[in-house]
Specification:
Layout (H helix, E strand, L loop, with lengths): L1 E10 L2 E7 L1 H6 L5 E5 L7 E9 L4 E7 L3 H8 L5 E2 L1 E6 L10 E7 L2 H14 L3 E8 L8 H7 L2 E6 L6 E2 L2 H10 L6 E5 L2 H11 L6 E4 L15 E4 L2 E4 H4 L2 E3 L5 H7 L4 H15 L7
Parallel strand pairs: 8-9, 8-12, 9-10, 10-11, 12-13
Antiparallel strand pairs: 1-2, 1-6, 2-5, 3-4, 3-7, 4-5, 13-16, 14-15
């Protein structure tokens, strides 16, 4: 059992958690993730490790409450425990001194890009964080990223905060202004990562995307997280989560991400009915 030490709401649909996990806290590196199971009947799902404190023995997680499991997670309180937390999993993010690195993130991906920005800057790079959200209320971890990056750019779809538009527009302007990054890192919704890769491809800018493919066991056995990269089958859990964005088959991955939508919708409806006190029949 893994006890929740701290919990707070970041937005109406995302939650910040510090969880006791001493062994994971000691071994975790930027870019790695854990797989959680809330209770005996819950599914297994991955979350990126946003931060860790080896001395305290805690890891930091951020989750968007969109499905049954993440909503269950969001209902837990400080002092409650999570049944299973397995990790750290996946390969750590590669960090060398390339020069100028642009790190783009959208939505909940902002939490996932934060440790990457820290790691890449620590390697001696000039880091430009470009983050986006639908509106001002959904912008998360702004202060943390402002401290972690050399430069921070914020966009919102509705223009309620920062620049009105998309993260790709900021990157496009930086490139046109001569501030061409030596490397680009992107994490967020698949359409956003695909758009970043399409933008950087003509400039031959190495572009890394962190994929959030569906996972079950996290060991490469189930095959549910497979993705085609450069014409070869890879498994996000053991080969990733970072891949060459110019080689990822985003169209195929997008289709795979929709496989369980009917089951996920049914599960969420049953959970919400049960949470409301309604009598749910098997």
């Amino acid at each position: 059992m893994y006890r929740i030490i701290e919990k707070k709401k970041l937005t109406p649909e995302s939650v910040f958690l510090r969880v006791e996990a001493p062994r994971i806290a000691r071994r975790r590196r930027a870019g790695q993730f854990v797989i959680l199971r809330i209770d005996e009947t819950g599914e297994r799902f991955p979350l990126t490790i946003v931060d860790s404190d080896p001395e305290e023995g805690t890891i930091t997680l951020v989750a968007q409450e969109v499905g049954t499991s993440t909503k269950k997670l969001g209902r837990l309180k400080e002092g409650d425990s999570i049944l299973d937390v397995t990790g750290p999993l996946g390969h750590p993010t590669e960090a060398e001194n390339w020069g100028r690195v642009a790190c783009l993130a959208g939505g909940i991906g902002v939490a996932e890009v934060l440790p990457v920005v820290k790691e890449i800057r620590a390697a001696g790079n000039f880091t430009q964080a470009i983050i986006g959200a639908r509106n001002q209320d959904l912008v998360i971890l702004e202060d943390e990223l402002r401290e972690a990056a050399n430069e921070l750019y914020i966009t919102t779809d509705d223009g309620s905060y920062g620049r009105h538009g998309l993260v790709t527009e900021v990157l496009h302007d930086l490139i046109n202004d001569g501030a061409i990054p030596d490397r680009v890192y992107a994490i967020g919704p698949l359409p956003m990562m695909r758009a970043v890769a399409d933008l950087t491809r003509p400039y031959d800018i190495p572009t890394i995307v962190s994929l959030n493919a569906l996972m079950v066991d996290g060991t490469g056995m189930c095959g549910s997280c497979r993705v085609t990269v450069g014409g070869e089958t890879k498994f996000t859990c053991v080969d990733g989560p970072d891949f060459d964005g110019h080689q990822v088959d985003f169209e195929e991955l997008g289709k795979r991400q929709k496989i369980y939508i009917p089951q996920e919708k049914c599960s969420l409806e049953r959970f919400e009915l049960s949470a409301s006190g309604a009598n749910v029949k098997e």
